[in-house]
Amino acid sequence: MERTSTGVPNEKMLMWTFIGSECMLFASLIATFLVYRDQSIVGPYEEELLNIPFITVTTFVLLMSSLMMVLALSAVQRGDPRGSRLFLLLTAILGLIFLGGQFYEFNHFVHEGLGLSRNLFAGTFYLTTGFHGAHVAVGVIWLLTLWTLALRGRLGPEKAVTVEVAGLYWHFVDVVWIVLFTVIYLMSGATGA
Amino acid sequence: MTTGGTYAGGIWSWITTVDHKRIGILYFVSSLVFFLVGGIEAMFIRLQLATPENTVLSAQAYNQLFTMHGVTMLLFAVMPMSAAFFNFIVPLQIGARDVAFPRLNAFSYWLFLFGALFLNSSFFLGGAPDVGWFAYANLTSSQFSPGHGVDFYILGLALAGAGSIVAALNFIVTIINLRAPGMTFMRLPLFTWMTFVVSFLIILAFPPFTISTVFLLFDRMFGTLFFEPAGGGDPRLWQHLFWIFGHPEVYILILPAFGIISDVIPTFSRKPLFGYPVVVYSGVLIAFLGFGVWAHHMFAVGLGPVATSAFSGLTMLIAIPTGVKIFNWIATMWGGALRFRSAMLFSIGLVAMFVIGGLSGVMHSSAPADLQQTDTYFVVAHFHYVLFGGSILGLFAGVYYWFPKVTGRFLNERLGAVHFWLMFLGLNLTFFPMHFAGLHGQPRRTFTYPAGLGFEGFNMVSTVGAVVTFLAVLVFLVNLVRSLRTAPTAEANPWEASTLEWSISSPPPPHNFDHTPEVTSRDPLWHDGIAPPPPGEEEFHMPNPSFWPLVVAGGLLLVMAGALVGLPLVLLGVAVTLVGIYGWSFEPIH
């Protein structure tokens, strides 16, 4: 590995810095969502639509994917090829399940009359959660790429930093979801299913 | 050992280069072209305003030109010219052989170039944006801006903005991680310090702008209601998000110039920078406060007394670290053995002109005064004193200072002095009368004015000044061309400067340093501050050239073009981008 002034690998430093930048991206989305809360002038309104129990389940799935990510990194660092393959694939699959839940939710909302241009809730909701979903999708593609590398035996302990950086990204995307789950769903005034 | 060897020749070697010095030169040449484009746009504006009721330009053409003048000068001239210096100089100043991610660096350049070309192509494809560089909602809605100008603005700046963010991430990592042994943070040259600070501003300020343009794009293309009052949306949301980006942006434009002159003034005063830590902290403080003052652009909107007072007070606070810097530069010169080379003239010019622009800035920070000045030429006078009198003069100081390092040749000092004095005269003739025109009530962003309101004299002087400024730029171009035809004679350290970039040959070899220097002092070349190299040759690897950065940037350009043309092109662009990313990821680096 190249010598660095701090001892932290460049790739890791890049990801931390990138995460700093991403915070401002999501902060702008969240601020807009909050400013426009309850400003829609036609329905359907958020409290009629949001299904908190359902999203709690997909949130749990996403949190579990973070756990799988930790186990995947640990397996790669130990040089355990079976564990690396298994946990990387599980992380990606849990991410895909989360995305499937989001797809179902969007579909359901459109069915209930919440087209993208219907009201302010539609625009802020679809863009905020959509941006997050796009991040999850990028992460899934990344994880599956690492998984194929692992399948071909090209993801040994010397690649641990690569996996760690992917993990940083994945955990960040998870943490953003915790905030979105709180702001969009728990604070919505929706009463449940 | 692997030496960097020499540079390969030919166009292909420039297209695939990942060398920070060559990318710096690419940035410089591109930004110079856009500086001329923006300057010609300014000349048309001044010609139109020379006399009342003039008809050089239609109102429509005028709106396009003042919009594109602003966008071009800020984002395609000043920022990339700063980036040119970040690229060429920062790795040399910290004792590195390249930036942390050389291919990412090439990628940033292509994104900037494609974004700038894409946005400027709108002139030939149905009309440039005509809504001001700030593009206030809801003038930008598809109802009031039915053409594609605003779409070009959104998509072009998305590319260029992404390029800026990527470059800034790269420089943060480079400055944190690639410093030579002994090069502690408090030994970094001021230019590197300001690059570091500006990079943080870029990565934190651009995302809100990206998000606001995404909202705007969705409003225009898919009928969302973010800025649509009829649907409950609020156009002020754009103003807040825009200025959360836009105000830090002005520090993104000025701090590199501050960094340049903080290196130039000590060199030509033969004295270390006075109060180095205070200058560093002031730069950091300016950047920090710069995030808390965006709403002073919005006093006239009516924010209410509490918000107005808070933003007013915070804005006034910025005058303190800025003033501290001014005093430090003066104290550096005080008692020094001054040499008035061109670089020094431009640096002193910056100090003087920035004081004028800074003072009118403090006037704006007072909300009651600002209400009188908003949307008048007084504001135009203010920001041109800080941007032209500040950023542009500072960047020219950098050009004269580092030209021998970059090319091995000197710019002619006599022509340099002519360039400086003409530009100094020209900018004051152009912008000083605007204070009075503004206080007499001449509105900005308006393509003409009636006779008899007392604006004629001021505007005529401004136009004459613009012509003088243009002549000054021509003198610079002549100087540039002439000097590139001379033989390279510059030795390693022609100005007897103190920082690391002057310890190696001019121009530097591709690998910069034969031995990674070990630094033991803040002004290493003045204090024997480089430890003697260990015996033997040092082993290192230089990165291979790569065309993947160009492929990925080209794919993203296709996506943006596809947003205007149709879905198939978007999909093609996505495919090219993905192929590029995978090609990039699995390419051997060395």
What does this structure look like?
The complex is a heterodimer of chains A (193) and B (590). Chain A has 193 residues and is mainly α. Chain A has 6 helices and no strands. The radius of gyration of chain A is 19 Å and the shape is elongated. The termini of chain A are far apart. The radius of gyration of chain B is 24 Å and the shape is globular. Chain B folds into 2 domains: 14-546, Up-down Bundle (Cytochrome C Oxidase, Chain A), CATH 1.20.210; 547-590. Chain B has 16 helices and 2 strands. Classes of the chains: A mainly alpha (193), B mainly alpha (590). Chains A and B meet through helix 1 and helix 5 of A and helix 5, helix 6 and helix 7 of B.
Instruction: Give the quaternary arrangement of the chains.
Output: heterodimer
CATH superfamily of the largest domain in chain B: Cytochrome c oxidase-like, subunit I domain
Q: Biggest sheet of chain B: strands, sense, closure?
A: 2 strands, antiparallel
Radius of gyration of chain A, whole Å:
19 Å
Q: Which residues of chain B sit in consecutive blocks of at least 5 with pLDDT less than 50?
A: none
Provide the CATH top-level class of chain A.
Answer: Mainly Alpha
Number of DSSP helices of chain A?
A: 6
Q: How many structurally independent domains of chain B?
A: 2
Q: State the helical fraction of chain A.
A: over 70%
CATH topology of the largest domain in chain B: Cytochrome C Oxidase, Chain A
- Total number of distinct structural domains of chain A: 1
Show unreliable segments of chain A: none
Structural class, from secondary structure content of chain A?
mainly alpha
Most extensive chain-chain interface: A-B, 32 and 38 residues
* Overall pLDDT confidence of chain B: 95
CATH architecture assignment name of chain A? Up-down Bundle
